[in-house]
Design goal:
Number of strands: 0
Shape: globular
Strand content: under 5%
Helix content: over 70%
Radius of gyration: 16 Å
Largest sheet: none
Order of helices and strands: HHHHHHH
Length: 181
């Protein structure tokens, strides 16, 4: 499994996370009202992806030959967490007031913890340049956010669970591929 396949799966994972957020929270078609959450998600997503990449690279130096297995295990843990959430969580209409800066920031950090863990696992598997992480996670987030903004009113709430399932499958493929390599 080459780097391009990891990038494709990581991009799919991140796209699903961003689309899930956008489809649930961007019910308004008014771009002005969703501008702060959109930019906030994008910034926090990229920031946590960078932190995960840096942390993974630092840890990989200490683990040496065990780093790939540890990265694969981390990918599987996040995958199983997403799978459990997709199968067990009943998605309901969210009651958060994302217009409040503190609420919005907290929500965005919590929603992107999976991105932090996934990029740490990917960095344990192989070292990737920071610019690649910025472009990959920035573009896939932006694509997911804009898709969610456009389709937000049309999507049913169950879509969030399906997107979590897609994200879980993408990470599981990475995890199993490197665990048994």
């Amino acid at each position: 499994m080459g780097n391009s396949f990891i990038f494709l799966l990581a991009g799919l994972f991140n796209f699903a996370i961003a689309l899930s957020f956008a489809s649930l929270y961007f019910k308004s078609q008014n771009l002005k009202s969703v501008c702060k959450p959109l930019i906030g998600f994008l910034v926090i997503n990229i920031l946590l992806a960078l932190i995960g990449n840096i942390a993974g690279n630092l840890i990989a130096g200490n683990l040496q030959h065990l780093a790939v297995k540890a990265g694969a295990a981390l990918e599987l843990i996040v995958s199983f967490k997403l799978l459990f959430r997709a199968l067990r969580t009943k998605t309901i209409n969210r009651l958060f007031d994302i217009g409040q800066p503190l609420t919005l920031t907290g929500l965005l950090v919590v929603l992107n913890i999976d991105v932090l863990l996934a990029t740490t696992g990917i960095a344990l598997i192989d070292e990737f340049p920071l610019t690649t992480i910025i472009v990959l996670f920035g573009c896939s987030s932006l694509a997911g956010l804009l898709t969610g903004f456009v389709t937000g009113k049309k999507m049913q709430f169950i879509m969030s669970n399906i997107l979590d399932l897609i994200a879980a499958i993408a990470l599981a493929i990475i995890g199993f591929a490197f665990l048994f390599r």
